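dude i think i finally got it to work??
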Amino acid sequence: MNSAIQCLSNTPQLTKWFLSGKYKNELNRDNPLGMHGEVAEAYGELVEKIWSGMGSSTAPRDFKATIGRFNPTFTGYQQHDTQELLAFLLDGLHEDLNRILKKPYIELPDFKDMSDQEIAQCNWNYHKARNDSIIVDIFQGQFKSRLTCNACNKVSVTFDPYMYLSLPIPVEKKKLTLNSCLDEFTKEEELSEEDLWYCPQCKAHQRATKKFDLWRLPEIMVIHLKRFSQTRTWRDKIDELIDFPTEGLDLTERVLGVEASKTVAAEDRLIYDLYAVDNHFGGMGGGHYTAYAQNCIDEEWYYFDDSHVTKVDVNEAKTNAAYLLFYKRRRQVNNLGQDKDEEKEVEEEEEKAEEKEVEKEKDTLKEALVL
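look at this
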């Protein structure tokens, strides 16, 4: 749990938002898919303790107890997969902070004769109409999935949201890199006899090919390296070193939703910098989790091993234990150190303040006229 929390708490946009106290105004206690706002509250209180500067370490006992109440898997002191915990926590925070109080029923149109751009945007709008939270704002992207029937060549295309990318590891490669894992993820795959697809045109289960592509990228990209392999007959962990960039990961040309990706202006390119790594040491039956993270205030890198914290160089984060990689999108900032989104947010708050002042002056004038 500690390693996942260290990575998440060093996510700049999320921590800044929780420390501002904004989460208190967006708690959705009535969402049947949420946890009555309690997980978001517990996380907010934990973040406040971590960043308070009081004490050298913080024991997340209350937070752990809250998580355990809603998911018994995380009770007790048995070790659990950090990716499973992160997935549960992000889902829980999203539902606890979902700004949609009543999810509308929306009937999707017939996508026949529509372009991929139109279908993708339609699906994204549908998703946002029912799911709108700080978690969606920061962590969610969209990928394209294409299935092609081997018998009749019927093509089925869907666009789905994702919170993190789970990348397969091409163990047959001599040198493993993050790019080779991304290539493996987007490689066309032949579905097996045990995984037949129901073709709506053939009206039968058929062999098919499947392909994933990135369509929309989030502000924060969480990459899960699938080190734990499992088949019907055996389970194993892949311990090979996977080389990944600590800065300047340019994904622009990998995203199908970006038109003319080769000519995109520099400030609009999808470039990411590493800010945290969640590590797993050990095998399938257990092990130990640690984390590397860049402090979002002093921008120095630290190594977290339970209650021990050590200042390190960023290149030390590249080990064969790297399991979850956390990247933040590089943004241009203005003279005040604000990126475009922050600048827009400040402008909106100023406009609201001006509107309130105008309304106040109107009320004062009305009172004067009455007198």
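The CA atoms of residues 206 and 365 lie 74 Å apart.
im so relieved honestly
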